[in-house]
Predict the structure.
Amino acid sequence: MPGRQELPSTLERSDAKAQRTWIKAHDSAVKEYGEGQRAHRVAYGALKHTHEKVGDHWRPKEKNRKGPSDPRSARPRQQGGRSGEGVDEQASKEHLYGVAKQLGIDGRSQMSKSELLDAIRKENRSDTRKARGR
């Protein structure tokens, strides 16, 4: 399976369901569109319906939080849709605070919801770079 061979490192550190979701969507997209970035975007889009990125891995979203991570990712890319980088923008502030706490983000208790989202995105990018050895 092409998806298994191209599994991103963040998914190698994630649960089996996240891996299966990404692989199945990736392989389906490869059949439809061919190998490349589009297949990866489709696979991540499917993954973001059920999982959120926390640091260097993906974990299941809160119960009853299935669906796109943010309104922009629900729109087609041609209409200005873009990813929330795996952070569930629809999650409660309390949930985002918990994620920030898990990631060790300083100053989280004084942050607004949008500041928490930005800080989590920044930390996720940092953790991904560290995991790749950069």
Notes: The two ends are 28 Å apart (CA to CA). The chain has seven helices and two strands.
